[in-house]
Amino acid sequence: MHNDLVAALDIGGTKIAGALVDGDGKILVQARRPTPATEDGESVMRAVTEVLAEVGASPLWTRATALGIGSAGPVDAAAGTVSPVNVPGWRGFPLVERVRLATGGLPVTLVGDGVAMTAAEHWQGAARGYDNALCMVVSTGVGGGLVLGGKLHPGPSGNSGHIGHISVDLDGDLCPCGGRGCVERIASGPNIARRALEGGWRPGPDGDTSAAAVAAAARTGDAVAIASFERAAQALAAGIAATATLVEIGIAVVGGGVANAGDVLFLPLRRSLREYATLSFVRNLTVAPALTGTNAGLVGAAAAAALGRVPAAQIPADTAMSAPTAL
Ligand SMILES: [Zn+2]
Known about the structure:
InterPro entries: ATPase_NBD (IPR043129), ROK (IPR000600), ROK_cs (IPR049874). By secondary structure, this protein is an alpha/beta fold.
């Protein structure tokens, strides 16, 4: 079993990546194409087929026993369909069936990208050794996933743990999802930048108005930039505290581009968490940055496809309980 490989697909609004992943989470073969996100559904599928053909050309392909897909959501794992918000040509697109056909009948597992990232962090990253964890991606959007009782918890449709769209501001701004005051509407990269600009922050000579530029300004002491990150941290903290109170998690892992802000995000996040996570069983929650980086989607999709053999059983007993350094 240890030598069996798992094929993985990571489907996002900007790129489609494919890989063969081994039992240690190492990527042996990789291919990628830009996502033709504004084109029709068949054109997007053609990019997927090209990625699969390139990975499938490897002599290692015959060792693949299953294929995992992590896709931008929403996904419907039960129906095998995807409807990524940023890929309008795919609405209820039967991706699982099409990939199965393209790969000659490999068993295919579909999860949302937040769930895939969670599988990667539990297997190889900061949530390793934790039986109960919330992992989240904070970038253009805010996604997430849950590990409960030692196992990935994708939920019936593969979207469980989608913390970006729980409301933390009852009368807050409308969210593109149709809700109001969602975590994503306050804490995503574009919203951090928007709030800073509205507050009077101005970019440098390079005109960069990304959240990364706001983070750089915050590091130099810009009060508006700092305040925008503090507000984002507050929303994340409220969402994390709610999750911890509901299902008792030991760690909240935060990844994605916005997490690269480092202390600019994590210091106010831990401070805010003390305000919202007050009960005895949530007070000692660890918050840690994600460790799996840019390949989290592929590694996580592979982990999700190999659910039966990925969990803590593979972790040597002496490292299983070593918690990541709390920053
Ligand atoms: Zn929303």
